[in-house]
Amino acid sequence: MQKNWYRLDTAALIFPAIAQQDWCNTFRFSATLNEAVAPDILQQAVNDLEMRFPTFFVALRKGVFWYYLEQSGAHVMVQPDYAYPLTFMRRKDLKHNCVRVLYYKNRIAVEFFHSVTDGHGGSVFLCNLVARYLELRHGLAIPRTEMIYDLSKTPSQEELENSFFKYAAEGAASRKEPRVYRMHGTREEDGFKYLTTGIVDTQALLDAAHRFGVSLTSFLAAVMTESVIAIQNEEKPRKKQKPVKISLAVNLRRFFKSETLRNFALALNTGVDPRFGDYSLEDICRSISHQLGLYATRQNLAGMIKANVQLQQLVPLRLTPLFLKDFGMNLVYANVGETVSCLNISNITKIELPDVMAPYIDRMEFIIGTQRSYPNNCSVLSYGGKTYINMIRNIREAELERRFFSRLVELDVPVEIESNRR
Questions:
Q1: φ and ψ of 152, to 5 deg
Q2: What percent of the residues of the chain are helix, what percent strand, and what percent coil, each to the nearest 5?
Q3: Which residue in 293, 305, 323, 380 has a CA-CA distance of 20 to 30 Å to 265?
């Protein structure tokens, strides 16, 4: 039987090229139920999603000129969750499947290699997996919504498309940005990742953001920026400091009409330069909010899309052998990709599910991995009146988490802390 295959979308091209022996770009969505997971039913639910979500059930392949995704010849087999979140996906693992489905007690988790999809696509996949599981386990009749798809339908071409090509502008935006301060610490040699989860009341968080007149994402980015500035202040005199910027993931589906379940997001780097003087939290909130207002427009984002797409369209580059592309992309990524922000904040915002599912799901979470060279990252998801802020790191020092969550408490946002710290 001939297997379907898919070109990597524009954002996905970089991830296989920059993967290393102990790192690749992955992320995780999970749902915690109010009962123990039945592995056999979970496996059936996974199998039932294969035809509806074909771009998730794929293996990474290496061609002469490009990597690509091919329909996997092996089912994605559910397995017990183990070790710590986002354990390394090896090359030989990706040659079989690019997603993992895991269970532990009441929790169902899915981990994705980033070449397959982005946060939006990952959340859709998890929600449909949980919905199908509950249908099989409890015989629920779950209505179809924007998040819950009809599994009997064939996926549309729009769901499978590379939307970057579709919405690129005629002209490209500049990629030039200054280098920023870098977080650092004592790396764990065995690859262990520390995960600290701050659980807060969503309304309390929104109230705090609104007191500063900004969105929740701008508020969290400002508190994070303030925390990083405080750490840099203890290390360097002001004249030797560097800008502090937080990379904020922007779901492009908010600006362009796209139904794709593949990657369709960009990062906007927002922040301040401490060398210019002291900033109050209000100053940082205002600055970040204005930066997002300036750059998160349809026109500017289309120019940024073009900057990513245009290289892919050059005939000489298309005909360059893959090993040379890998070398070039690694060189560019090392010198540009992770030098323009201190860490990422990826906010999925609020997930809403059909009312019939709510009694069975206690919480939902989103975790992004650490980057290749910088040690901290942050991801945010709101569900059921709670916001789950996951801060992950591959260093022993927890200074950033301590400052960030302590500052939220000072701002009248009570935080319940969970950690896998060993």
A1: -80, -10
A2: 35, 25, 40
A3: 323
Residue 315 CB burial class (10 angstroms; 0-12, 13-18, ≥19): exposed
C-alpha of 174 from chain center: 24
- The amino acid occupying position 6 is Y
Residue 344: phi, psi to the nearest 5?
Answer: -105, 150
- pLDDT average, residue stretch 369-374: 89
Does 123 have pLDDT greater than 60?
yes
C-alpha closest to that of 391 among 415, 411, 363: 415
Domain 5-154 has CATH 3.30.559.10: yes
Distance, in Å, from the CA atom of 248 to the CA atom of 251, rounded to the nearest integer, reads 10
Q: How many CA atoms lie within 13 A of 184 on its CB side?
A: 5
| Residue showing tokens 């993931």 | 249
Per CATH, the number for 167-419 is 3.30.559.30
183-228 per-position pLDDT tens digit: 999 998 888 899 999 999 999 999 999 999 999 999 999 999 999 9
By the 8 A CB rule, do 337 and 179 touch?
no
Q: How confident is the model over 373-382, as pLDDT tens digits?
A: 889 999 999 9
DSSP for 213-245?
TS-HHHHHHHHHHHHHHHHHHHHS-GGG---EE
Q: Is 379 helix (H, G, I), strand (E, B) or coil?
A: strand
The answer to whether the 5-154 and 167-419 domains have the same CATH topology is yes
Q: Is the pLDDT of residue 8 over 90?
A: yes
For 174-201, b where at least 16 C-beta lie within 10 A, e where not — what string? eeeeeebbbbeeeebeeeebbbbbbbbe
If you search the block for the tokens 């990252």, which residue do you land on? Answer: 377
366-369 long-range contacts, CB within 8 A, separation 24+: 366/27, 366/28, 366/29, 366/119, 366/122, 366/123, 366/390, 367/27, 367/28, 367/29, 367/30, 367/85, 367/86, 367/195, 367/392, 368/27, 368/28, 368/344, 368/392, 369/25, 369/26, 369/27, 369/86, 369/193
Stated pTM of the model: 0.95
Residue type present at position 183: M
- How would DSSP label each residue in 111-126? EEETTT--HHHHHHHH
Decide if 141 contacts 356 (C-beta within 8 A): yes
What are the residue boundaries of the structural domains of the chain, listed by start? 5-154, 167-419
> What are the Cα distances from residue 383, in Å, to 137, 244, 358, 388?
22, 30, 10, 8
User: DSSP per residue over 45-67, as a string?
Assistant: HHHHHTTT-GGGSEEEEE-SS-E
